[in-house]
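Note to self: keep these together.
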Amino acid sequence: MNICGYYTSNSLPSQGSFNSIELTCFSLFFPARVTGIVSFDVHFLPPNSIRHRDLPEGFYILRWKENGRAEADFGRYNVNTVLSRIYTLFSRSGIPIAKKHQEIMNMVDE
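Structure:
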């Protein structure tokens, strides 16, 4: 479903860009109209969520939540390389969890 088209056809305000909160709400309210969501945003969870509390320090969301860390990690590569590495990481069966002194983008080299 084209969310921008939905907003436009129903006279709703649209910036042409949506964050994970809006996408999540839309998929919850209209599950029959949503096949899937593709986003390079971090999915919305309330602060101190139980879901992330027990995950190790190398969990990608915890790492990229630190100011400037994702930008420094991504900034070492061109856009095509970053997208390729993210696709590779998230197409694996496990959750990407880096070692203590390893950056997330370096995990693809393993």
